[in-house]
Backbone:
């Protein structure tokens, strides 16, 4: 028997529409409802998707609103933190460059 079937309980559906990745999260055992979240199809969006899938694979009972089954609000907050960290890193890099120039 193949390791591919049956599908594990933490499996998800993934599709692309325009510049958005959609991640359909079926309910895990013990939950009644699944849901779908979406994020931009860029490096950070793919990182968010991988983090969610990784979290789902470690637990078989994630409820909605957890790392393995975040709601859209959680996705937006994660993205804001990622954007802020990127801006801070770019600012630090710019300051380092200016310091090297003696400015």
Residues:
């Amino acid at each position: 028997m193949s390791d591919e079937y049956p599908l594990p309980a933490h499996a998800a559906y993934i599709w692309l529409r325009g510049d958005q990745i959609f991640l359909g999260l079926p309910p895990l055992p013990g939950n009644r409802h699944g849901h779908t979240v979406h994020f931009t199809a860029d490096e950070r969006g793919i990182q968010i998707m991988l983090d969610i899938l990784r979290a789902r694979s470690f637990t078989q009972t994630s409820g909605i609103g957890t790392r393995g089954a975040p709601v859209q609000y959680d996705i937006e907050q994660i993205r804001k933190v990622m954007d802020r960290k990127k801006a801070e890193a770019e600012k630090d890099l710019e300051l380092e460059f200016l310091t090297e120039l003696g400015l």
